[in-house]
Amino acid sequence: MEASVMFDRTQYANVFKPVEQAETLPAWCYTSPDYYRAEVENMFMKVWNFFGHVDQVPNPGDYMTVTFAGVPLIIARGGDKVIRAFANTCRHRGAPVAQGEGNCSAFVCPYHSWTYGLDGTLRGCPGMEKTEDFRKEDNGLIELPLEVFGNFIFINFDENAEPLIDYLGDFPEIMGSYKLDNLRLTRKVTHDVACNWKVHIENAMEEYHLPTVHKATLDLKDMDHSSAPTSENWTDIREHHDEHTRALLMEDLAHELPHIPGLEGRAASGTNYVSLNPSTMLGMTLDCVWYLELQHNGPDHTRVIAGSCFPEETIARPDFEEKAQYYYKRWDKSLGEDNDIAAIQQQGLRSPFVRPGRLSHLEPLIPDLAQWWVTRTVPEN
Ligand code: FES
Ligand SMILES: [Fe+2]
What we know:
By secondary structure, this protein is of the alpha+beta class. The chain has two domains: 49-160, Rieske Iron-sulfur Protein (3-layer Sandwich); 173-377, Naphthalene 1,2-dioxygenase Alpha Subunit, Chain A, domain 1, CATH 3.90.380. The chain contains ten helices and 18 strands. Strands 12-18-17-16-15-14-13 form a seven-stranded antiparallel sheet. Strands 5-2-3-4-9 form a five-stranded antiparallel sheet, with no helix packed on it. Helix 6 crosses helix 9. The relative contact order is 0.18. Mean pLDDT is 94; it is low at 224-228. FE2/S2 (inorganic) cluster (FES) is lined by residues 90, 92-95, 109, 111-112, 114. The site of FE2/S2 (inorganic) cluster has 9 residues, from loops.
């Protein structure tokens, strides 16, 4: 599709309607490399992006590398225990200075051995002594804004970013009773899915697909499905809610783990599926919290990382490992089904005959998310 069409806001008029009148995003939003580049430049480079849980780098010297929206990054915990984010780009001639994940005391560039400390400072640069006006202190790794909330890591590419707490808006208050600071990451799984990142997050934020995609998997009988799941548009966060009283398990509820103590309001009465826009889903339920972190570097491939977090007291129980397996099994099964349908949908979206579709009242957050994304990606004319 031509840029003059894709970046004309009037093309999206039907997205900016209530669900009963709205249409889906045009297919190019899911398939076009040019549209993806606009999302990166106009949206992902300016928002707080989610990078999982602090327990991925628990000890001083722990680091992991990620390429997100085309930007290679290092997330490392320093000797001072502070977690920092750096552009994984050598200040000499640009090679990435770290690969994979692990523990180290310094990053040594594989090209000419420039060496950087865990705080990004340039420590060693052999053969640079005759280079004029070269100062090590001006040549550390580029550090990016990183903040932690509720043990979750957020990175912004904009050095003038608003504080994370402002970006999160009413989330900390509304979901405060989960006491995220008391939850630990117990497991993380990674899947590569041939779909656009929006395909995956849309799936996570609607329940219309449950009786079809998960009919063989999810035990829905404890939930009240006589009425539609309710969705709430708070000022800054979006969530849909399922009323239920017992754990979300496929099999015997004897494997249920204790509820998170002190849950209040909607938190105490089921599961809240929260979208931290633009692209993160937190599943916040009675006994645990799980997340979907989406990493992408193009329009048609998404690395889906699912993390599960339980309260420290629950993890300390002697039966935790055994019972947690039943939770993991359920997530693996349902996530596998979501990944499969996402890849199938993406295939369909490549057809020249796809048209914007009409929506059910059972998926009210689909137009809501689309509005949030388009507002940031396509400037008004
Ligand atoms: S590119 Fe890193 S030391 Fe030369
Ligand atoms: Fe699903």
